[in-house]
Amino acid sequence: MVKVDIEIQNIVLTVTYKDTEFDLEELAGILKGARYEPEVFPGVIYKSKTPRASFLIFASGKMNCVGAKSMKDAEKAIKELTNKLKNSGVKIKGKPKIKVRNMVASLNFHREFDVEQIAREFPNTEYEPEVFPGLVLRLDEPKVVILLFVSGKGVCVGAESITDIKKAAKKITKVISK
């Protein structure tokens, strides 16, 4: 079995505070470095430094968290932001509901690929080297997209867990070792 190195590059999550609405003007004043330009974007843009993550905060009590490289970092950034808001007097009821929407990971298969052959032999692939140098491989289970490159490197997008990424990498190693 081929060893595959997996490195998470980005996690996208939605965060929902039940029965909560945010005053975006107020939040922009509370959060140091936050940007709020309602004529450009209908939410507050805020970046936390440690752990590194960016937030898009909406009046509805929902926000997106992007840029974390691990679930631990994402959860810590969300917890710290929640505490910062609560400590500033923002009314938040209970813990936020967190859902992973997308994980992006780089993959290293430690071998080169004949992407043209893979494209000919396997369904759910797209390969147009004039447009994009990688092979696009769509998996049904887990439901992810893998970009494979001749170099033996790849990118997995659309995963909702590290388990999905590992399953996808395992499937690809089976496909390419035939």
UniProtKB/TrEMBL annotation:
Pfam families: TBP. The keyword Transcription applies. It comes from the Archaea. Signal peptide: none annotated. Sequence repeats lie at residues 100-176. InterPro entries: TBP, TBP_dom_sf. GO terms for biological process: DNA-templated transcription initiation. GO terms for molecular function: DNA binding; DNA-binding transcription factor activity. Keywords: DNA-binding, Repeat, Transcription, Transcription regulation. General factor that plays a role in the activation of archaeal genes transcribed by RNA polymerase. Binds specifically to the TATA box promoter element which lies close to the position of transcription initiation. Belongs to the TBP family. This is TATA-box-binding protein. The lineage of its organism: Archaea, Methanobacteriati, Methanobacteriota, candidate division MSBL1. The gene is tbp.
